[in-house]
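User: structure tokens for this one?
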Amino acid sequence: MVHRWTPLGVILSMALASQGAAQIVVNSLDDPGLPGDGLTTLREAIDQANITGGVTIHFDPMLAGGTIQPTSQLPQIIGGNITIDGDIDDDDAPDIELDGSLTGSESDGFRISSGGNSIVGLVINRFPRFGIFPFGPAASGNTISHCYIGTNLDGDEARPNGDAGIWMRQDTSGTQVGPGNVISGNTAQGIVINGGSGHVIFGNIIGLDVTGTADLGNVSGGITIYSGANDNTIGPGNVISGNDFDAITVHYSDRTQIVGNLVGTDITGSVGLGNVWAAVRLVDTDGTVIGGPNEGDGNVLSGNGGSGVFAEYVTNTVIQGNIIGLDAIGTTPIPNVFH
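Assistant:
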């Protein structure tokens, strides 16, 4: 579909914003776009931003509610400190959809190999592999917020990516996933941390729709941490429910903190929308902390098809201050099927 709504042309304003970042405005939903046509596509904007880094990519307000269908893999984000912001009206919800169904096999939504980048306010769906794929030792300190990954633009129907919604490879660190993401409906897990460290996942809905009240589960579970992924944090403020395997799986990884989440209930903590298997599964881990002594540390682990906590070959595990098998105020039973 061709959109020629505005004569703004290729807008690369090198006038510095208050933060010192250059601005690029995407004003076409086309892909790949035509050189010299006076319009800027997302692909062209990423290429421009990669030259210098430190650029914020916005979208023309007339594109709100529109869909970009890349015809091949989008450029890898290599410039660093690049923000791609699809929240046009600043309401903490996406206004631009990226539909990867035309990209061909082995494509991802965004491949990020640099640090300090932010992906904000975008719907990312139907890519053959991952919605977002940070990789490489330079991919540190990235942020993913207010995105819907694996759903439609309204956040109420599954539009699955072909693998995990977000996959963080073993040499990455310090990714902040949250707040405000809906990561649901994907063919594999919602989020995978494969050996990375220092990542924080907080304030998201993982496995339910945008309202937090209807099942839209990821097929292979909510969050999987494995292969020596140490010192990662899940919480606070995630709702991890409705997934078709475990909500949280930690394998062969140490010092994971799981604090302040609703696991197996709706967003109110009063209705069971259980994960098919365990709320938390630990295998061959050391130093995992589930809950804690302070207000807000405890998790609600209720309504799941397996155990509240399943632990095997673990050492130095702390389970404290959680509500297991009851609603969020601890008065009404929402039992897990097993102990």
